[in-house]
From TrEMBL:
This is Exo-alpha-sialidase. Residues 31-43 have a biased composition (Polar residues). Residues 23-55 are annotated as: Disordered. The keyword Metal-binding does not apply. The keyword Glycoprotein does not apply. PROSITE patterns: PROKAR_LIPOPROTEIN. Keywords: Signal. Residues 1-19 form the signal peptide. InterPro entries: Gal_Oxase/kelch_b-propeller.
Length: 416
């Protein structure tokens, strides 16, 4: 596996956010930044700006929704209906290798711990997907045996949906994403060119046209996968790949390539590592990097941020820098998105409108019991409620001298 493939399998790398000739900065209390994305090109081209002014927008503030009492972290979240959501992760004891699955369910008012299916390894990623409150899926690796095993919530209990068939190298694969594309249509990807598909009767391994690390969709039968593809046969260097499920099979959809200006950079490569689609439109992000230390006057690594407008993937220009790494994103109900990266009290989070204006969200309030210590929020996943106005972020909170604890934050977009 090449350097970028390994990196994107674990992170949503780098996001720089984007500017156009739109209204100027506001502050972090719900402020317009100087970063407004502008759609600038068709696939593979470097066309002129198509930026447009955006309507006034307002921000919201993050609120703590759940904080575990013991050590642990949440890794995934899925919204299964209005006022109904699930989050999965693990708890652990400081100084010990002992760990157990942590499964939470939101009942419309609060998050409650519920029993998780037995036999899954809490030390490896376990992923969630849902097509409704009676159609929730969970996929992880069994212990012992290390076989990938699926479970399905039918509204009253978890039922085993069997072990997944192997493919070469599967023993080292971990589940990077799991999504439903309608009843009895479930897909799992692992960062490579293999996926698993559940058709209502059983699982089968499926070869993809490119490597996939993330999935998104929601409409029955409409599903997207993003990742990377080799620039030439047997060539380790990569460019972004976008794939769409159509007629039961996956096909590559043209997407922009990323190249540094002349003289270029050694071993440059790019990839997409996150995608969020809603109502036929959406966003995907990743990174464009190279092998550092081989030349003088190196270019700067850059974010790969592209937007699907319903017919074409287009680059989004980026002229204002955001923190380096690991943004998570979720599409709202207006063709915009919320993105966040790990940091103190979720202060590194923004709402971006389709025309380009971006607003910085108000951060969480510091924890009273550990002021200034236990307030680092590591974001692992995000998801919107069906109203497209309320977004969840899950992960963990920690700090100097404090053990990480499973955490969930909630943001309500105002003025929508």
């Amino acid at each position: 596996m090449n350097r970028l493939a390994a990196t994107t399998a674990f992170l949503l790398m780098f996001l720089t956010a984007c500017t156009a000739d739109t209204p100027g900065p506001r502050d972090a209390g719900g402020s317009r930044t100087s970063s407004a994305p502008a759609v600038t090109s068709s696939p593979g081209d470097d066309g002129g700006s198509q930026a447009a002014s955006a309507p006034p927008i307002a921000s919201g503030a993050w609120q703590q929704a759940y904080l575990g009492e013991t050590g642990g972290a949440l890794k995934d979240i899925v919204v299964s209906g209005p006022g109904d959501a699930w989050a999965i992760g693990a708890t652990h004891t400081e100084g010990s290798e002992a760990s157990s699955l942590l499964l939470l369910r939101f009942d419309g008012t609060r998050w409650n711990e519920v029993a998780a299916p037995s036999g899954l390894n809490p030390h490896e990623p376990v992923r969630l997907a849902a097509a409704g409150s009676r159609e929730v899926w969970l996929l992880g690796r069994a212990t012992p045996g290390k076989q990938l095993t699926a479970f399905r919530w039918d509204g009253s209990q978890w039922r085993s949906q069997g072990e997944l068939p192997p493919w070469p190298g599967m023993e080292n694969a971990w589940v990077s994403d799991l999504k439903t594309a309608g009843p009895d249509n479930v897909w799992a990807v692992y960062g490579g060119e293999w996926a698993h598909h559940w058709d209502g009767h059983g699982w089968r391994a499926v070869r993809l046209p490119a490597s996939a690390v993330a999935l998104s969709g929601g409409d029955p039968g409409d599903l997207w996968a993003v990742g990377h593809r080799a620039t030439e046969p047997q060539e380790p260097l990569t460019q972004p790949a976008t794939m769409r499920l159509a007629g039961g099979s996956w096909r590559l959809v043209p997407s922009p390539e990323y190249r540094f200006p002349p003289p270029g950079a050694p071993e440059e490569e790019s990839s997409l590592s996150g995608v969020s689609m809603l109502d036929g439109k959406g966003w995907a992000i990743g990174m464009h990097t190279f092998n550092h230390g081989e030349v003088e006057n190196e270019p700067e690594d850059e974010v790969a941020l592209v937007r699907w407008d319903g017919t074409t993937w287009r680059k989004v220009a980026m002229r204002h820098k955001f923190p380096y790494c690991c943004h998570k994103l979720a599409s709202d109900d207006g063709d915009g998105f919320v993105m966040a990266t790990s940091g103190r009290l979720l202060r590194e989070s923004w709402h971006v409108e389709p025309a380009g204006d971006s607003v910085t969200m108000r951060r969480l309030t510091a924890l009273p019991e550990t002021p200034g210590k236990g307030d680092f929020f590591a974001v692992e996943a995000m998801a919107f409620e069906p109203d497209g106005k309320t977004v969840w972020a899950v992960g963990s909170m920690s700090g100097r001298g404090t053990q990480e604890r499973a955490a969930i934050a909630r943001l309500r977009l105002t003025g929508r």
